[in-house]
Amino acid sequence: MENYAKQLEKQMLELELLLDKVERRSKTYKETGNRHLRVSNRKEGFQYYVDNGDSKFVYLRSKDRKLAKRIAQRDYEEDVQKVIRNQQYHINRFLKMYDATAIEKVYDRLGKARKELVIPLIETDEEYIKEWKKIHMGEQNPYPDDGQFITDQGEYVRSKSEKILADLFYRNNIPYCYEPRLELTGGKSVYPDFVLLNLRKRKTLYWEHLGLISDMEYALKNMQKLYAYEKSGFEVGKDIIISMESSTMPLDMKVVERKVREYLL
Questions:
Q1: CA distance readout (Å), 150 to 105, 165, 217
Q2: Which residue of 8, 31, 203, 219 shows the fewest CB atoms closer than 10 Å?
Q3: How far apart are CA 149 and CA 163, in angstroms?
Q4: 136 Cβ neighbours under 8 A, 6+ residues apart
Q5: CA distances from 214 to 42, 121, 211, 217 (A)
Q6: Cα separation of 203 and 85, whole Å?
């Protein structure tokens, strides 16, 4: 099952930023003091009244509506603070108890003999990866040149940068295969550099490394390839991840690592 902890942790960060913003804004409402706002409905619109710290409310004329706006905004933001803190409290409690793998662990705790008899309701990660690799077999590119660089996973790749990428995937326990066969619309086959699995989402993605983008012929050929991907329903930035370099622009590992975190972990 998908692990929602990361989404909740991201929401917690958003709540913290919003709370910080509201708390800083609260210091700007000093002129409102402890005054309260009262609203009265009239056929011609609304009338606003403000108290001066006692129980008497004074009518605000149109020229004094700025004070009403400030008090209303202050009250609204105070309520927002309460709601944010309440949300944080419940999310924190949930995260402390939440275990996305709890159901899978029921099967994992079974003895070997019982596992022989039981079909798990949710496929284990190990079994899912095994079946995924059967469907997405690597090293399918018929291009005659063999790879010169061996990866930590044990396959040969064609460039040093591809080895760097493959080893990064391997270190992060991201299932991948090198140069799978992918059939596009119209029966055309292409061979992406990598097919990868986001195990948390159980989503398949493809990674294309463009290693000679300063070469116009090479760049044009790969733009046509990316166009063919999108015509077949594979969107760049959603299903297709791209890295690039040239003779004057080396592979930027900070960008690569950010993409790995964003798309694959």
A1: 35, 12, 28
A2: 31
A3: 6
A4: 177, 180, 195, 197, 204
A5: 70, 51, 9, 9
A6: 34
Q: Which residue do the tokens 């890295």 mark?
A: 243
Task: Give all strands (DSSP E) within 130-250, no chain letters.
Answer: 149-150, 156-157, 176-178, 182-183, 189-190, 194-198, 203-210, 240-244
Contact, 86 vs 94, CB < 8 A?
Answer: no
Residue 17 structure tokens: 């930023």
Q: How far apart are CA 108 and CA 115, in angstroms?
A: 8
Angle at 241 between CA 239 and CA 242, to 5 degrees: 145
- Specify the DSSP element, H or E, that contains 261: helix 253-264
Whole-number Å distance between alpha carbons of 226 and 231: 9
Q: Tell me how far CA of residue 32 lies from CA of 4, 20, 63, in angstroms.
A: 42, 21, 16
Helix (H/G/I), strand (E/B), else coil: 110? coil
Whole-angstrom Cα distance, residue 110 to residue 65?
69
pLDDT (tens digit, 9 = 90+) per residue, 243-259?
A: 999 888 899 999 999 99
Which segments in the chain show pLDDT lower than 70? Answer: 1, 53, 144
How large is the C-alpha radius of gyration of the chain? 29
Structure tokens at 184: 């596009």
Written in H, E and C, the secondary structure of 221-237 is HHHHHHHHHHHCCCCEC
The pTM (predicted TM-score) of the whole model is: 0.63
